[in-house]
Design goal:
The chain is an alpha/beta fold. The chain is built from 2 helices and 12 strands, in the order ββββββαβββββαβ. The strands form 3 sheets. The protein has a 5-stranded mixed sheet, with helices on both faces. Strands 1-8-9-2 form a 4-stranded mixed sheet, with no helix packed on it. Strands 5-4-11 form a 3-stranded antiparallel sheet, with no helix packed on it. The N and C termini lie far apart (about 30 Å).
């Protein structure tokens, strides 16, 4: 059993008891493939990211989490969107039931080398054409769709 379960637009989802600011990075390689990790807690492929620590900005959090989860150093290059849908609920084994709060940034690799962490079973750049056949949560697919749409403004939702 995984230690995390995501609910999205599910009327049977438990009621949230937590709201934690977090962020993620959409990082592309020179061929347009997206940096993704396969999460060890859910088995889904996801963008690297995590929750803020006291004393850091959200941008610093995303840079730190990307390094911890993928081995790559990135710099933030823009804002993809703000994702705070109260219908995305994340339930953890410890009883925390979190409402989504994720700000997704664009990033660019500036150092490091790909490495798997304790939070992932695989890390690699994934071609957009491969994503259809991989387990990816709907909310991550939404972020990827917003990237593919080449929006002129960040998503606010």
């Amino acid at each position: 059993m995984s230690s995390r379960r995501d609910y999205y637009r599910d009327p049977n989802a438990p009621k949230a008891n937590s709201l934690v600011p977090g962020g993620s990075a959409l990082v592309l390689d020179e061929n347009g493939a997206v940096l993704m990790q396969r999460r060890s807690d859910s088995g889904n492929w996801s963008l690297p990211g995590g929750v803020m620590d006291i004393g850091e900005t959200l941008e610093q959090c995303v840079v730190r989490e990307t390094k911890e989860e993928t081995g790559l150093d990135i710099e933030i290059t823009g804002l993809l969107g703000i994702y705070t849908d109260p219908e995305h609920i994340i339930e953890y084994e410890d009883g925390e039931i979190r409402q989504e709060f994720n700000i997704a940034y664009y990033g660019r690799v500036c150092g490091g080398r790909i490495a798997v962490s304790s939070e992932s079973t695989e890390v690699r750049f994934v071609g957009l054409d491969e994503l259809e056949d991989l387990p990816v949560h709907d909310t991550v697919r939404l972020r990827l769709r917003h990237y593919i749409e080449k929006r002129s403004q960040p998503y606010l939702g």
